[in-house]
Every structure is written in C-alpha cells, then in structure tokens.
Design brief:
Elements lengths: L10 E7 L3 E8 L7 E2 L6 H4 L7 E2 L1 E6 L6 E6 H20 L4 H11 L7 E2 L2 E5 L21 H24 L8 E7 L5 H13 L19 E4 H12 L10 E7 L4 E8 L8 E10 L3 H15 L3 H7 L1 H15 L9 E4 L2 H14 L12 E4 L1 H22 L4 E7 L6 H11 L5 E3 L7 H11 L4 E5 L3 E9 L9 E3 L5 E11 L4 E3 L3 E6 L8 E9 L12 E10 L3 H4 L5 E6 L6 E6 L9 E2 L3 E2 L5
Parallel strand pairs: 1-9, 9-10, 11-16, 13-18, 16-17
Antiparallel strand pairs: 1-2, 2-3, 2-4, 5-6, 5-8, 7-8, 11-12, 12-13, 14-15, 18-22, 19-21, 19-24, 20-21, 23-26, 24-25, 25-29, 26-27, 27-28
Helix pairs in contact: 2-3, 3-9, 4-5, 6-13, 7-11, 11-12
Length: about 600
Amino acid sequence: MDYVRVEESRIVVALDFGTTFSGFAYALRADPNKIYTFYDWPMQDVGSGRPYCKTQTSLWYMAGSNAGTYQLMDWGWPASVNYSKALQSLASSLCDGRDTNIIQQFAERNLLFASNSNSAAGFFLTKFKLHLADEANITEGLPPGLRVEVAISDYLSALSKVVLKELRERFGSHICLDDIQWCITVPVIWEEHAKQQMKRCAELAGLVAGSACGSEDASRHPLILALEPEAASVYCQQKCDSLKLEKGDKVLVADIGGGTVDIVVHEIASISYPHKVREISRSSGGLCGGSFVDLSFFKFLSERIGCFSQFAIENAAEKVMIAKHWDYHKYEFDGSSCSVCLDLPGKLAAAWEAYDASRAHGIISPAQSYDEINLTEKDMKKIFDPVVGKILALVDNAIVSDLKALMLVGGFSSSPYLMRRIQEKFGERVGEIIRPPNPGSAVCSGAVTLGISKGIILARVSRKTYGIYTCKDYKPSDPYQYQTVTKDGRVFCRNHFDVFVRVDEEVPNDHSVTHFYYPLEDDQERIKIVLYSSSESHPKYTTEAECTCVGSFFITFPSKIRLGVEPSIVVRMYFGRSNIEVSAKLSNSGKEEKAEMLSVKFEKDFS
C-alpha cells in the first residue's frame, strides 16, 4: 500500500489492551491536558459490581456451520454475563427444569475462563493476549482453527465501536475513524514479533490502514505503540503534584499488574510540562503479577487438602467460587498476625472429609472442620512471598543511586502486603515511595500524552545487542565449516554477527545506525537480510548460544552485470523507538534514490 502524508489527527485514543482487563482514554490535540477516561462499560454493574475504568478482556464465540469457523456473540462484560445465561438456559433444557440447583451447578461448572469451556453454549475466551508473549506459560489453548490474531482483532474491533460512540457523543456525530490516531500500549518485555503482530491485529480490526486492513474507513494516521511503563511514568509525573521534580532527578516506575511487572528508570531532562526524560538503564520486567499469587494459593490448598487438585479438575464451578472469596482476602492481607478464615463450598467439604476417612480407615478427629480453612499469618506469607520476592528482586535490580522516587501503578500494586514489603525494603534507599490516584488508568492516560506530545522520551537503553547475519572475508581463525566459496572463487565466512547496537547502550529516540552491504555474486539481484539479537555485548557469530534470529527482510536491486558497478546497499535501522524500524536503498545507482521503510518480518519461531 502507498501511504500519503496526512495532517495530524484531531484526537488521540490510547487503548490499554490487557490480559484480563482493557480500557481506553482520549484527548483532543487542541486540548492535550484534558484527558478523558472511559468508565461507562456495558453490563459492568452485573459483571463486576463496581465502577472501573476497564472491561473484561473476554470473547464469547459460537461455532460456525463450517469446521474451524466461529461467530462472535459478545465481548467484555456482556460476554461473561450472556454466556452464563446461555449456559443456564442450556442446563434448564437438558434438566427439563426439574432441579434449579442442578441447573445452577451445570452453568457454573461450564463457566470456565478458558477456551476449553466448550459446549452447545459456545466458547468463552480470556487471557488470549498471552499467546503473543514469549515467556508466558499458556495453559489455555484457542478453539481449533481460531487464530490468536483473529481473536485479538475481533476484540479491538468491538472496542473501537465503543470508542467511536463515546467520541461522537462528546465531540459530535461527525467524528470518524480518520479523526483518530490510535495508540496501543504493549509490555516492555515483548519482543519485536509480538509488537508487529499487534500492529497487524489493529489493521485487521479496521482501526488503521495497512496491508492487512480491509476497511476504507480506517484511520490513515500511523499506529503508535507505547511501552506500558513509559506511559505509566508520564502519568505518575503528571499526577504526583506533591513531588517537585527537577532536572537530573531520577524516578523508577513499576507497573505491577495481574500478569506482568514492567519497570523503567527515567532521568528528568527538562522541567517544562510535560517533562522530557531519558532512560538511564535498560527497562526490565517479568511474569510475576497478582495472578501468580492466586496460583500459589491453589498450590497451598492442594498441599493442605489432599483431594483438592483432582477436585478442582472435576468441579470448576467450586474452584471459581473459592477464587472469588480468595480475591477479597488477597487485597485485605497486610502482613499482620490476623488469621484468615476461608469458607469452603459444601461439595469440597464433603469430598475432603471422605478423602480423610478413606485414608484413616473411617476414624476422623472431631476437632477437624471441613467447611472452612484457616490461614495463619505464616500461611499467607507462604502464599505471597514467592511472588512478592520476585517483584522485590526486579525492583531491587533496577534501583539506581540517588533515586528521587519509586512510583507504583497497576492492579497488584494495591496489595497492602506488597506495599508494606516495598516500604520495608526500599524506604531508606529512595526519596519517596508513591502510588498515584487511579492507578488502573495510569497506563492508558499516560499513553495519550505520549501520543500527543512528541519527543517526551529522549533516549532509551537497548535491552539487547542487535545486528545482521553477514558474510565476511574468511580468516584462518574462523570455523572451517562456515567457509563458503563464490562462483568466481572468493572465499567468505558465513554467520558473522554484524552489530548495529549493543546491549545497555543508550540510543537517542531519532538516532539511526547505517551499514553498507554488497552482494556475493555478480548476477545477484536480491539479498535476504536476517536480524539477530543477543544478550551478550560482543557476539561474533550468529550461531552462538545467546543469539536468537528475530526477523528478516528482502532487498532487490540491479545486478553488477546490469548496473556496471558493484551494487552498494545502505541499510538504516532505528533502535531508540518503541519498536525497531528499518529503511534501505541502493546508494550507487547513479540517480537519487529514496530510502524505503521496509516491512520486516519478525517471527517468534523463525527458521
């Protein structure tokens, strides 16, 4: 597709597409300080019971008439609510209305937050975003034939309709998609293939124009990808009025959500609003958010209740009920000596008592209570500490000297116990520890500012060493098996890692690195450029253990035979932005060549 330059959009909309919850915020470019956050989600009162700036990241599908096809029935809270109703209706028909308890049990048992929740009522999906993450341990598959990019684009398409309706109600019915520049937030730990796939999903959803977009109404303004901790940093600096930041001050922002922790350390480079910042150490993160405390809790139950693991497999409804009760206690626990009494479903109590009786030959202690379980302070810490310890380690590794503030956002940052542990460990090492108001909207609100105010992030620190697979003149020190000989008898060594940027190197936002490349053969008219990354600073060969192939692109040019001189290809790569960008051109064609931004194919499983 040929792109033409268009005027700046009237509105910037930031989408915080999350693993479990998603939301959006927006602002007019003409009034950038007035950022609106959306709260009026359909069926939120039924699905959640409380006002919140996000809706559930969920989809409800029915199987189509052909194998591997699906019809989207609903999304967000309505998907959860209406899918549950469909299950109850199905249960009623199967049970012929004879026993309302059986009907309810059937509905609850099938209301699983996973794609294997398949029945005549359809498929209910959540956490499908995890399929884009390299390190995610995905236990929930997608229905046969349903690709993750289809699920994500279906969700984004439905979300965009709510966005457009909201904008028209606020600014006028004339508002269309082409008035919008979209900004989607992404985790800092995502690799390039995941970012590229998210861009493709936005095109498939009809949000932005592109090769995958089939809509003529899509926005012509390019999609912006905002790194989540950077957006959170901007928000914190805006909302923490009591914190008087000056040039040279350093702040650490930790976005502690349900699934991931993302961390960035910024140095204030200007005191004008909004502050310009530069990253002073590489951003970091990990999969250790609040949902992993839930996993630890269920592991604890399995150790305390001998039959629980098997019971949970066979009785999903009861597991969901326990999870809801646990969620309340999880956000109440502050590390005090008070014990937690957790009521257990009657079905589990009966199963537990029968299990113990079978192992004790029918002799049960009268002091044993099976309808509740008491968790002492020691028990609660055993559940929390493995996850909290990982979070503390991530923050500890990121802390630098003379840190003015440690800022916490994200859902799990509201845990009193986590906050207490952070205060105990870092209280004397940093100037202030701050949790801003409305931490749930921190990322999408900050992303709006990033989308409107260009150049806030002056420089980033490269998380890896990036380079290109090349052939160089063969030397005796090179591995013999890498040797290759051209048609005219020249001897080269394959698999050399031609470094563009090194790990921990500061890269300005608009800085690019340029290298020149030449074909091996005189009749060659095409080169495949393959990108590699490494966690090492000075990789020599692309075959080293720490090297990973991350993407490729092709360059075509006239051969040396047609051109009369050896073609010289100049490749320019941008690393200081939120994602890698590449341009290339023939530098010695004898005429002015325009550098073309290339479509790099980033792949998770590249071969």
